[in-house]
Structure formats: C-alpha cells, structure tokens
Amino acid sequence: MQHNWSRYVRWIIAFLIACTGVGLFFGEPVYGLTIGLLVYLWWTLAQAKRLYHWLGNPDGGDEAPQSVGLWGDMFDGLHKLHQNHLRTQDKLRAQINRVQESTNAMRDGVIMTDSRGAMEWWNGSAEHLLGFRRSSDQGQFIHNLIRNPAFKAYFDSRDYREPLELNSPARPHIHLQIQISLFGDDDRLIVAKDVTRLFQLEQMRRDFVGNVSHEMRTPLTVISGYLETLVDNADDLPPKWRRAINTMAQQSSRMEALITDLILLSKIETGEQTISDAVTDVKPMISQICHDAKALSGDQGHEFSINIGERHLLTGDQSQLRSAFSNLIFNAVKYTPAGGKITVTWNTDREGAHLSVKDTGIGIDPVHIPRLTERFYRADPSRHKETGGTGLGLAIVKHVLLNHDGRLEIRSHIGEGSEFICHFPRERLAERVPETGS
Ligand code: ADP
C-alpha cells in the first residue's frame, strides 16, 4: 500500500493540473483550479461520509464501502482488519463456550465472584447444589445466598488451605465441601463438592463405634465385677487360678478404659454442633488434674510445676476440656521416667489462650508427630502395654480442641522431652463471671 501513496499524490496533482489546463483553455486557470479543488473536496467528503456511516455500525450487515484510488485502498484495508477481528472474536467465543460447557458438565459447583463476593458467573451444578438462580442472583453477594456465619468467616479469612464443610442452603440433605482459590485481581473461584455420601459413611462409622461400645459396656461391667470379687477373695482360690484371675481382671479394666474412651470420643465427635458455651474456670480444673497426676505418679517422684496466668476463664464444655487436659497431663506422667519434671503453664496473649504441658520424658521422633492424633497411633508400639494407654487420648484432645476452635501443637525430639500446647482463639477467652449473691 505504501508504494501506491506517491502514485495517488501524482494522480491528484495531475487532476488539478488538468483542471487548471481546462480553466486556461477558457482563459480562467484560477477558476479551473478552484473547481478542481472543490470537486476533489466534495469527493473526499462523500467517501468520508460512507466510511463514517459504516464505522458507526460495521456489524449492521452492510458490506464495507467500495471505492477507487486512495479511498478504495483504505476501505479494503479496513475491511480486512474488520474480518480478522470478527474471526478472532469467533475463535475466542468458541473457546469461552467450550470452557463454559466443560465447567457446566462438571459435577462440582463452580462460582466466580469478585473480591467482595459479588457473583459474576456460576455453572449448572452450582445452581443445583446451592440453589442459585441465573435470572435473579447475578451480582448478588454470595454471603446473602449462603447465609452461614462459618462460610462468611471462611470467605473473609483469605486462608483457604483447608476446605470448609457445610450443608447446602437450598437442599439441607446435601453436605458440601467448599474450597476457595484466589485468582486475577483478588477475585475468588469457589468450588463446591457434594460429599454427602462420604459424610453419611463417616456418620455411620461413628454411630457404629458408639453403639458397639455402648452395647459392650454392660456385659463387660458384669465380667469386671465378678472378676473383682474373685480377686478380692483370691486367697480362697487354688494357686494355679490366682495368676489367671489377676491377668483377666487387668485386661478387663483395660477394655473398660478403652470402651470409656471410645464412647467419649464418639460423643465428642458427634457433639460438634451442640458445644456448650458455658464459662469454665480452668484454674481449679488444672490444679485438680495435676493433683490426680501426682497420685498417678505415686512414688516415681515426678516434679510438678504449675503456672496459671491472670485470665483463666474459657468459653467451652467443661467435661470435654477436662478430658483433653487430663489426657495431656497424664501422658506427661506416663512417658516421663521417674524423677522427671512436668511443667503445666496456662497463659494468654493477643492471640488467645495457651495451655502448655511440657515434660522431660522420652520424647517423640518428629516423623511420628503429624500422625499422633490418629486413633490408636503410637510412636512406640512396644511401650503401650507398659503405660496401659488406650491409644485414643490424643484423638480425644484433637476433637475437643476442634470443638473449641483451637488447635494442638506438638514439639518433641527423642530423649529431649515433649511439649504439647493447646491454642485457643481470643474469642474463647471469657471475662470474669459476676459473683452470685451480693
Ligand atoms: P496412649 O494411650 O498410647 O498414650 P495417646 O493418644 O494418648 O495414646 O498418645 C499417642 C502416642 O503419642 C502414645 O502412644 C505415645 O507414643 C505418644 N505420646 C503421647 N504423649 C507423649 C509424651 N508426653 N511423651 C512421649 N510420647 C508421648
């Protein structure tokens, strides 16, 4: 096109010279030139008008205007550009349609929102799982549609390492796992997965363990009772029976402890929603548990150090907290050789409240730490016969802390003792309850 430019300039000059020549023929070269310029101006304006109308509505179905010379080339160039643009647009639209079709085919709900939660796009499964309506929910804030404080807190937290589980607001029998990812300009991609089957299986497992433990408790109590009577009257028994009866009594009390812990764990697990919000004073509770732990230590001569800070009121279930704290403190006694030191500290800071149970005992190889709170997981399986533990203590601690929005931190190395720290959030700290009476 570039090389045509000088040709067009030459044509225009030739046209103007021709007009001047015609003018000269009639004795008025200036008129001839003026008329030539006016004709050229009129033609230019006519072409500009056609272009102007076409640009105003290039997709209106009209072909790009046709012309000759400079304007003809410009119209052709613009027509080509427009065609390229339409082709790219079609390609992009096809790609977007494909992405939307594939996300629509997904069984998981997918939702895109901006940083404040205004809904921008969602797929068909999100409509089914969460009850969104395409006609009315566009631009709505997602917290107004999923009215759940836990979801709002999760959305605002910006910490999406762990998913959130909740019941669908539209179909309460559907249990959803929600995972949020950040993308683009602080926007959110929300994926909602239907985990109802898994949830029901988990619930069945809990119920089964709870029911079996309950059913076993009564016959076991009877057996233990008779065994205890036999142990008490061991002198009347033939000597060859005495050892057998003693071992049976020991094992039945171990089974009783196991069943008590299983029932407790299943209660704590299922009681997640019905957690009491009574205020618990942890100071007398810790003192009492340490008193019992000294009795457990017996003549092993463990040295106890107890430090309890100023603020020691916590919102939560007293019996669950007692179970958790006593498991940690009794473990410290069980896994610390005679003469060792056990330090129990309760302190509060800007983050919340912290109970630390530190011992100078056998310690734990750090490879075991991530799995210690699993049921029946033992760092040193050969020792559990000695300690007589059920293997459920730390699982109980973990669930109690989950129920209280807390978490368990474990610091330990083989031979260097262990420290178990229960962290509770600030919101769990309570102000002093008013004295009753005067
Ligand atoms: P157990 O009834 O076996 O004590 P827990 O769930 O209470 O079960 O503890 C799980 C495992 O964690 C224990 O078997 C033990 O290996 C380890 N453990 C717990 N507390 C301590 C501790 N204070 N020092 C060393 N190891 C510990």
From TrEMBL:
<keyword id="KW-0812">Transmembrane</keyword>
<keyword id="KW-0418">Kinase</keyword>
<dbReference type="GO" id="GO:0005524">
    <property type="term" value="F:ATP binding"/>
</dbReference>
<dbReference type="InterPro" id="IPR050351">
    <property type="entry name" value="BphY/WalK/GraS-like"/>
</dbReference>
<protein>
    <recommendedName>
        <fullName>Phosphate regulon sensor protein PhoR</fullName>
        <ecNumber>2.7.13.3</ecNumber>
    </recommendedName>
</protein>
<dbReference type="InterPro" id="IPR005467">
    <property type="entry name" value="His_kinase_dom"/>
</dbReference>
<feature type="transmembrane region" description="Helical">
    <location>
        <begin position="12"/>
        <end position="43"/>
    </location>
</feature>
<dbReference type="Pfam" id="PF00989">
    <property type="entry name" value="PAS"/>
</dbReference>
<dbReference type="InterPro" id="IPR013767">
    <property type="entry name" value="PAS_fold"/>
</dbReference>
<keyword id="KW-1133">Transmembrane helix</keyword>
<keyword id="KW-0472">Membrane</keyword>
<keyword id="KW-0067">ATP-binding</keyword>
<dbReference type="Pfam" id="PF02518">
    <property type="entry name" value="HATPase_c"/>
</dbReference>
<dbReference type="InterPro" id="IPR003661">
    <property type="entry name" value="HisK_dim/P_dom"/>
</dbReference>
<comment type="function">
    <text>Member of the two-component regulatory system PhoR/PhoB involved in the phosphate regulon genes expression. PhoR may function as a membrane-associated protein kinase that phosphorylates PhoB in response to environmental signals.</text>
</comment>
<dbReference type="GO" id="GO:0016036">
    <property type="term" value="P:cellular response to phosphate starvation"/>
</dbReference>
<dbReference type="GO" id="GO:0006817">
    <property type="term" value="P:phosphate ion transport"/>
</dbReference>
<dbReference type="InterPro" id="IPR036097">
    <property type="entry name" value="HisK_dim/P_sf"/>
</dbReference>
<keyword id="KW-0592">Phosphate transport</keyword>
<dbReference type="GO" id="GO:0005886">
    <property type="term" value="C:plasma membrane"/>
</dbReference>
<dbReference type="InterPro" id="IPR035965">
    <property type="entry name" value="PAS-like_dom_sf"/>
</dbReference>
<dbReference type="GO" id="GO:0000155">
    <property type="term" value="F:phosphorelay sensor kinase activity"/>
</dbReference>
<keyword id="KW-0808">Transferase</keyword>
<keyword id="KW-1003">Cell membrane</keyword>
<dbReference type="GO" id="GO:0006355">
    <property type="term" value="P:regulation of DNA-templated transcription"/>
</dbReference>
<feature type="domain" description="Histidine kinase">
    <location>
        <begin position="211"/>
        <end position="428"/>
    </location>
</feature>
<dbReference type="InterPro" id="IPR021766">
    <property type="entry name" value="PhoR_N"/>
</dbReference>
<keyword id="KW-0547">Nucleotide-binding</keyword>
<feature type="domain" description="PAS">
    <location>
        <begin position="95"/>
        <end position="140"/>
    </location>
</feature>
<keyword id="KW-0902">Two-component regulatory system</keyword>
<dbReference type="InterPro" id="IPR036890">
    <property type="entry name" value="HATPase_C_sf"/>
</dbReference>
<dbReference type="InterPro" id="IPR003594">
    <property type="entry name" value="HATPase_dom"/>
</dbReference>
<dbReference type="InterPro" id="IPR000014">
    <property type="entry name" value="PAS"/>
</dbReference>
<dbReference type="InterPro" id="IPR004358">
    <property type="entry name" value="Sig_transdc_His_kin-like_C"/>
</dbReference>
<dbReference type="InterPro" id="IPR014310">
    <property type="entry name" value="Sig_transdc_His_kinase_PhoR"/>
</dbReference>
<keyword id="KW-0597">Phosphoprotein</keyword>
<keyword id="KW-0813">Transport</keyword>
<dbReference type="Pfam" id="PF11808">
    <property type="entry name" value="PhoR"/>
</dbReference>
<dbReference type="Pfam" id="PF00512">
    <property type="entry name" value="HisKA"/>
</dbReference>
<dbReference type="GO" id="GO:0004721">
    <property type="term" value="F:phosphoprotein phosphatase activity"/>
</dbReference>
